[in-house]
Amino acid sequence: MTCWVVIPVKAPGACKTRLAGVLGDAARRDLVATMLDHVVEIASRVTGIDEVLLVGPSRHDLPATTRLLDDPGYGLNAALASAARTAAGEGVDRLLFVSADLPHLTSGDLQALIAQPAGGAAIAPDRAGTGTNALSLPGRRAMEFGLRYGIGSFAAHVAEADRIGLDLAVIRSRTLALDIDVPGDLKALRTGPDRDRYAA
Questions:
Q1: Is residue 19 part of a domain?
Q2: 86-124: b or e for each residue (b if 16 or more CB lie within 10 Å)?
Q3: CATH number, domain at 50?
Q4: In a domain, 194, yes or no
Q5: Which of 125, 139, 166, 196 is paired with 114 by a 20 to 30 Å CA distance?
Q6: CB burial class (10 A; 0-12, 13-18, 19+) of residue 54?
Q7: Whole-Å CA distances, 53 to 4, 25, 37, 174, 197
Q8: How far is C-alpha 140 from the chain's CA centre?
Q9: What order do you get walking across the sheet with 67-69 strand by strand?
Q10: Which of 16-25, 64-73, 84-93, 190-199 has the lowest mean pLDDT?
């Protein structure tokens, strides 16, 4: 089985603008880079993941060996749909979309996303239960799945799986649920298992 992890990224200057009131530009760039490095590092060492790729306008200073997929420039859903087409063209069996801002992501989180029946899918919600922090799709069905990232994406993705008859497991994990979007998330970040990595 061939498995890809695809991580969507924005341009460095466009990341985490909702934190601008509490973090300066340099601090936000450092936070984004540290979280992305962590997600890539974890994904790169999980058995069963064959390739870790980014989709977006920038590698964020990651090595050139990190493959950067083309972003058509029409938003997150279009970028990930393009990645799904690329994966299908290369015969990928399982495709994981994983957010770049998961500072406490573990190998076990990714293993749970991978460990689905060949024709099944899995979704991991955020702490509020309304957003989607990770999505695991069978490669041959990924292009059928209408991506709905944005407000209320968790419910929209559950409905989409039902629409196309795709069995969908819900993975609830404290470490997978923590994404960093608003100032209130920073408190959880700095009291978690990797707090030294993110100390201000």
A1: yes
A2: bbeeeebebbbbbbbbbbbbbeebbebbbebeeebbbbb
A3: 3.90.550.10
A4: no
A5: 196
A6: buried
A7: 7, 26, 12, 24, 23
A8: 20
A9: 67-69, 51-55, 3-8, 94-98, 132-138, 121-125, 168-170
A10: 190-199
Domain count of the chain? 1
pTM: 0.92
Residue 173 lies in a domain: yes
Exposed/middle/buried for residue 39 (C-beta within 10 Å: 0-12, 13-18, 19+) = buried
Residue 192 is predicted with a pLDDT of 56
The mean pLDDT of 75-94, rounded to a whole number, is 95
Residue that wins the pLDDT comparison between 199 and 47: 47
> Which structural domain, as residue segments, surrounds residue 30?
3-189
- The reported pLDDT for the residue numbered 198 is 54
What is the C-alpha radius of gyration for the chain, rounded to an integer number of angstroms? 16
